[in-house]
Specification:
Elements: H1 6-14, H2 21-28, H3 30-33, H4 42-75, H5 79-99, H6 109-123, H7 127-141, H8 162-183, H9 187-200, H10 209-225, H11 231-256
Helix pairs in contact: 1-2, 1-4, 2-5, 4-5, 4-6, 5-6, 6-7, 6-8, 7-8, 8-9, 8-10, 10-11
Length: about 260
Amino acid sequence: MDSPSESSLIAKLQSSDSPGIYALVSDYLRPLADLKPTKKSNSDQTLIRSLVKRFLSFINTSLSMLPKRLPEVSKSNDAVLLLELLRVYRLCLDCLDTIAPQLVPKPFSVEFQRLRLMHCLESCALFAEAEVEGLRLLEKLRPAKRKGKLLPEIDKGGGGGKELCSLVVDIAVSLVRCASAGLAKEDDDFKKVLQLVEEVTPWLRHVPLFIVSVAAYNFCTMFLCVCACCYTVYSCCYSLACEYVDSWFTLRWEKLD
């Protein structure tokens, strides 16, 4: 049987009746998914470029469409189709990782695509999977030598870049939302969130005021509604509120100048 075309696969991804869609997409992308890292040679680069030309359109279309499609499927309570589409989503992201060196993307473009998957998992109320995705992203961004830490070091890890700052803060906010949705049940969960807030606070000085306000709102809401009342919780909320006020005054002074 002939392999399905790009257009037919996209149509199936959009359809409410798409049994076996992962198997079809996996078979279609197999030449790219099976690509193994090898020593760079002209023949390798020629092969990769040909695969990029062949599959990039499908990958881009899928990554644009699936984040909108998945919440709809989640609301329909079709668990089988939801699982298949999530597997397709992750496969497309893995393929994008493979071809990324051949593209000229914006900084951290692949990581932002994975952050979008994390947001999508949140929208589908798959908070445990979203947390795993977020922690995996942070691990990728964090140098191996920063053992015991959740975030990269801002002054030594290229924290001055706007893209990296926005990425790290967004991941942190999403992780806290997952905790506030009911994942934080044990002491270790609370400790991890408290550590996350402590480490992310310096990053907030390098992102727009709107992002700071969203972060402060999510963090404080989580602590006040879920965590037990204690000095550590109060201290975290207070420091985040101060960070927001400092950012607001800085923005106002910049406008006056």
